[in-house]
Amino acid sequence: MNLVVLQNWLDNASFALLFCTMLVYWVGAAFPSLWVTAALGTAGMVIANLCIAALLGARWIEAGYFPLSNLYESLFFLTWGITAVHLIAENSSRSRLVGVVTAPVAMGIAAFATLTLPATMQVSEPLVPALKSNWLMMHVSVMMLSYSALMVGSLLAITFLIVTRGQNIQLQGSSLGTGGYRSNGYKLLKAGELVTQPSTPSPENNGFSRLETSNNGHGTAVLDLVTVAETQNIASSETLSPQRLSLAETLDNISYRIIGLGFPLLTIGIIAGGVWANEAWGSYWSWDPKETWALITWLVFAAYLHSRITRGWQGRKPAILAAGGFVVVWICYLGVNILGKGLHSYGWFF
């Protein structure tokens, strides 16, 4: 079997695996009692990741350069990055919902590369002079990994908005894994906890009230909640179930951490691109459409992290900002190549 035939087999196998994995995750979400779907979904993602890695490796051996020179190669590298970041996020969150949103995106990208792109774009060709540089691996690979992480983090933020039904719920200390919640007119507790004895706030806890809670009959736990004004009416029933609230906390936390991983990669990639541009074209920055949208992407996620770290935003507001970032990343990566040409024209396919 020559390398070209192997590549054709691997790209089709990757698409088929991701499609089946997507179905497994969806079935697992619809029928949570089927515990085996979680293991099957993770196994499917691992095998798909390895298949794509083998595809890129075979491409590298055949062409003699790092496989990021055209749209077909970059799409599969992006898919590989998404599956890798998915495995990190899933292992951290222990939630099958991660695969429910990441698997269809990875499958769609693989399908676009395999079934939509013309055959001429799927064939490796000699590098143009501008790409014959060691910066190809340094700049483009880091940018693609940053796109992967930012996409997964944004998808989890969108999932958070769906789980919370778009309600303005503030998760107290969710980035640090704590469990208190506050909502408009509701005291929200973690799953399995029942308030048995409220107490008044004291000066020592800076306006927080402490509630003695019964934790499924296994002793007493103490949960700190933000004090609600006496004039505020507290509903007797929660708008969201405790399970949804616990899931929302996890999604918010993992989304924040994954975006926190992708942002420095994006920063390094932009800096490396500037150095490469100066070497190739004599200018660090030329306001090429790709460069402009890379800067916009950086600003959007810088605003997200600033709102989380400096302003202390959590919940709906930063999630909406991250959801907008998902669109911006796609415009930067693919939209620029569709809507217009520039110095970064190697991915153009019209």
Largest sheet, in brief, is: 3 strands, antiparallel
Number of strands: 5
- Distance between the amino and carboxyl termini: 32 Å
Approximate helicity band:
55-70%
Spatial order of strands in the largest sheet:
3-4-5
Report the total helices. Answer: 8
Mean pLDDT: 77
Q: What proportion strand?
A: 5-15%
Rg, alpha carbons: 23 Å
- Helix vs. strand class: mainly alpha
Instruction: Note the overall shape.
Output: flat
Low-confidence stretches: 174-238, 346-350
- Summarize the helix and strand pattern as letters: HHHHHEEEEEHHH
Characterise the protein shown here.
The protein has eight helices and five strands, in the order H-H-H-H-H-E-E-E-E-E-H-H-H. Among the domains are: 1-127; 170-242, no CATH class. A hairpin with a 4-residue loop joins strand 4 (208-215) and strand 5. Helix content is 61%, strand content 8%. Helix 1 (3-30) runs antiparallel to helix 2 (36-63) and helix 4 crosses helix 5. The protein has helices at 3-30, 36-63, 71-93, 97-116, 135-163, 242-281, 289-309, 316-339, and strands at residues 170-172, 180-182, 193-198, 208-215, 220-226. It is mostly helical and 350 residues long.
